[in-house]
Amino acid sequence: MRNLKRIFLHCSATYEGKEYSVETIRKWHLRRGWSDIGYHFVIHLDGEIEIGRPIGVQGAHVSGENKDSIGICYIGGVDASKEAKDTMTVPQEIAFVEIVKSLRLIFGELSIHGHNEFSTKACPSFIVKDKFGFLN
Length: 136
Fold this sequence. Notes:
Number of domains: 1
Radius of gyration: 14 Å
Oligomer: single chain
Structural class: alpha/beta
CATH superfamily: Peptidoglycan recognition protein-like
Number of strands: 7
């Protein structure tokens, strides 16, 4: 097993309220030449958590930061004009809190971050520490 230290939250950069499957995201990532979906988990609009890439396999979600991290993506993240927007539904927020708690029970104290802390991208379309700082 990898030595895990961090969790990164991402958005799928898809329109608010429009659902996408893990298989669709996997196809997008395979078209980029990746070996699989870049994220370990995907949180659907209704809060369902679906497994993406196996957790024991390094992800492809934050350039240069994947070795010790878990990538979680929520569906959404942009408004009708493709501008960054926090579109997390309440069920997605609850699911994120629950998956963080579960992963910490298994792997110890993992810090949480947004993709935007380590890149110029807006993803996940908000500041993770502002929204989920109570998890630190």
